[in-house]
Amino acid sequence: LRLVAVLRAILEGEKAAVLKRERHLPLSFHRRQEELKFSLGLQRLQHRIREIQALRERDGTGGERRAGLDRSQPSAPTAPQELPALVLEAVKELEAAKQQVLKRIQIWKRQQQLAGNGAAFEENLAPLQKRCEALAELHFQLQQQVLAAGAELGAELLPRLLERLAEALGSLVKR
């Protein structure tokens, strides 16, 4: 994590230097930056889903140890609070990724409108479709983890999470 923070600081410094020198960055730079942000968001979401799965597997296989055979494990009492927090964080990241996809769809729509006035327009929808498919796949994986952890999440949190997940996918499909 420190390495990521150091690299981020270096890149921010480089970006600031380029912005001072060049007032306007080329459109390709902004597209690439947006693509990298989206990819990073998907990787974070995928990591959260793996964390949820690992926590569930650890709690599922370590249930006998938590019941009394091994009380020296310090994380055992906090595990029930850890899973809902991880799931909520994953849902937030899913919603953020959805917002990025919706933003890109709006940009594409605007470019299409401008093309009617003679502006250049890239008709290739493959990158946008790829984003939507990746997001739908991670949505499905997260929903599977939430359903599998239903008893651990509780009767009041589970319906709210499922509703948020359904709304996230529903709003993407409507657009």
TrEMBL record:
UniProt-listed SUPFAM superfamilies: STAT
Region annotated Disordered, chain positions: 56-80
GO biological process, one term: signal transduction
Keywords in alphabetical order: SH2 domain
Name of one Pfam family that matches: STAT_alpha
Domain STAT transcription factor all-alpha, chain residue ranges per copy: 90-147
Start-end of Basic and acidic residues biased regions: 56-69
GO function terms (MF aspect): DNA-binding transcription factor activity
InterPro entries hit by this protein: STAT, STAT_TF_alpha, STAT_TF_CC
Protein's name in the database: STAT6 protein
Annotated source species: Crypturellus soui
